[in-house]
Amino acid sequence: INVLCGVGILSTPYAAKEGGWLGLIILFTFALLSFYTGLLLRQCLDSQPGLETYPDIGQAAFGTYGRIALSACCVEYIILEGDNLASLFPNAYVSLGGLELSPQRLFALMATLAVLPTVWLRDLSVLSYISAGGVVASILAVLCLFWVGLIDQVGFHNKGTTLNIATLPVAVGLYGYCYSGHAVFPNIYTSMANPNKFPSVLIACFAICSLLYAGTAVMGYTMFGEATESQFTLNMPKDLIASKIAVWT
Description:
One of its GO terms (cellular component) is membrane. Helices cover 63% and strands 2% of the residues. By secondary structure, the protein is mainly α.
C-alpha cells in the first residue's frame, strides 16, 4: 500500500479538476491494468526457478542482452535525475585538484550513492515498519483534508465539470503515476512468507488505494473547485491545525 499510495494522492484532486468527473474512469482503468500486469509479473517470476528481479526476467526472455537492456534503462533514470536536479541547482559543482564534476555528473553520482543501498535489499520485510509509517501518513493526510472540509467548515460546495477534454491528458498522466509501484513487486513477491497469497494481497492493496485516491479526488475537487492546486495541501487554509498536520506528514 505504501508503494502505491504515496505522494500521488496529493495530486488526485488536481487530476479530477483537469479531467472532470468522468476522468475518474481513467483512474479505475489504470487500477485494473496495473493489477493485471502485477499478476503477469508473478507468472514471469514463476516461469523458471531462480527468477527474482527484472534483470533475471530479461535474461530469461532475451539472454544476456535482455539483462543489459534492463540495466541500461536504470541508468537512464540516473541521467534524468541528474539533469533535473542540475536545472534546479545550476551552480552546484565540485572541483578537487584536477577532478571537476559538472552539476549533471555531480547529482547523477549523488543519486546513485543514495539509491545504491536499496538495491542490495533482497528481503523487504526489514522495511515493513517504515512502510507502515508511510501508510499511516497517507491516511492521515486524507483525514486532515476531510476534517478541513467538514469540521473546519470549508465545505463541499463545488459541483465541478463533467469532462475537460482539453486538459484530459494531464489527468491521464497523474492517474497513471498513482499506480507506478511495479518496480518493487518482484522484491515483495520473493520476500513473502506465503507467495501464493500474492494475488489476494494485490487485490486488497489496489482496492484500498483506489478508494483512497478516488475519495481524495472527490473531496478535494468539491472543496476547492476550479481553484484546486497541484497538491491539495496548497489549498488548505494555512492557519488551521489540520492543514499543518497534512503538510508535516
